[in-house]
């Protein structure tokens, strides 16, 4: 008799537990087709990530009782805007410790990794080992100084960086990858809070200027380029070039004369540094170093010399191209867009 009571109690407990987990899964901001298949560990992981996201962006989730938005903070408009504009990328939000609080479902299109798999796990587990220190420095606010004159308790710092992320797509769908990693161009901002205004123990030191508290990072990730460089259709405002590893130009297409006035032959053996404005040279150097390490990069906007002695604003996508059966990269291929 006692054994039956124990079994009945255990069965009732399991039923209540399953019902609670089912209800919790239904409350997650995910389609029912996904939530109905989640195991208990995934429900806990996703719920924890969602609650953490609400803590970092509390003003972004205020809703009226009828479901319409009210007093929605700029963070949600930021995310919504990016989602509308990022058909060739995905949005992600990281906590200060590198956990993925949110990532859009479009990540699966570019990486082959699902939104459910990524959310709640550490970004460090999905990026190249050589990029982990760079990401940690971004999240810790290395080099960021608190402006004592600022009245607000929180402030934001713009971030542009490149990460090599795991890609498990089939080769025909993956685009350009290197050892299973795809270069992702990340653009967004980190949010920091005044040290005495944070209700958490995650405090970071920055350049001896005291402590800053990182709330998180929101960014959009784009693949570079979306297809192989040999398959990209060039517009009328883009010219292509090949260069050696020191950015010495060895070939330029004919569009260069229409866009900046130089004939292609005039620029052979010159480096991209010689055509770049001196004030933009440091940014070009950083992009060059990142290219040699990660094999793909997009430069920031820079001033490009014209034949008339003036300058035009430009941006260049650079790709390190390997030749088959060669132990070293063959050349750099660049596509420069002139504004």
TrEMBL record:
Example GO molecular function term? Answer: protein dimerization activity
Protein name (database record): Uncharacterized protein
Q: Where are the transmembrane segments?
A: none
Source organism superkingdom? Eukaryota
Question: Cross-referenced InterPro entries, in alphabetical order?
Answer: bHLH_dom, HLH_DNA-bd_sf, Nuc_translocat, PAS, PAS-like_dom_sf, PAS_fold, PAS_fold_3
Look up keyword Lipid metabolism and say if it applies.
Answer: no
Q: What is the lineage of its organism?
A: Eukaryota, Metazoa, Ecdysozoa, Nematoda, Chromadorea
> Residue limits of the PAS domain?
76-139, 240-300
């Amino acid at each position: 008799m006692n054994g039956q009571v124990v079994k009945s109690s255990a069965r009732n407990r399991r039923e209540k537990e399953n019902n609670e987990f089912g209800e919790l899964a239904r409350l997650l901001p995910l389609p029912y087709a996904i939530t109905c298949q989640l195991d208990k560990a995934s429900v806990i992981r996703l719920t924890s990530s969602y609650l953490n996201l609400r803590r970092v962006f509390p003003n972004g989730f205020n809703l009226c009782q009828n479901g319409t938005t009210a007093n929605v903070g700029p963070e949600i408009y930021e995310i919504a805007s990016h989602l509308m504009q990022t058909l060739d990328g995905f949005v992600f939000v990281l906590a200060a410790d590198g956990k993925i609080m949110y990532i859009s479902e479009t990540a699966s299109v570019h990486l082959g990794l699902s939104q459910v798999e990524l959310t709640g796990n550490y970004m460090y587990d999905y990026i190249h080992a050589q990029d982990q220190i760079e990401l940690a420095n971004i999240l810790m606010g290395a080099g960021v100084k608190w402006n004592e004159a600022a009245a607000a308790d929180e402030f934001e710092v713009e971030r542009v960086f490149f990460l090599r992320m795991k890609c498990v797509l089939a080769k025909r769908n993956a685009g350009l990858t290197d050892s299973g990693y795809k270069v992702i161009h990340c653009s967004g901002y980190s949010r920091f809070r005044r040290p005495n205004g944070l209700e958490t123990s995650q405090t970071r030191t920055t350049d001896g200027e005291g402590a800053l508290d990182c709330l998180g990072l929101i960014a959009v990730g784009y693949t570079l380029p979306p297809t192989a460089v040999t398959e990209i259709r060039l517009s009328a405002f883009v010219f292509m070039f090949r260069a050696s590893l020191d950015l010495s130009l060895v070939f330029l297409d004919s569009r260069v004369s229409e866009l900046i006035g130089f004939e292609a032959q005039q620029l052979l053996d010159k480096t991209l540094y010689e055509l770049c404005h001196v004030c933009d040279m440091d940014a070009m150097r950083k992009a060059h170093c990142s290219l040699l390490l990660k094999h793909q990069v997009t430069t920031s906007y820079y001033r490009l010399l014209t034949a008339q002695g003036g300058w035009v604003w430009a941006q260049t996508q650079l790709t390190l191209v390997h030749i088959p059966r060669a132990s070293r990269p063959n050349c750099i291929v660049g596509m420069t867009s002139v504004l």
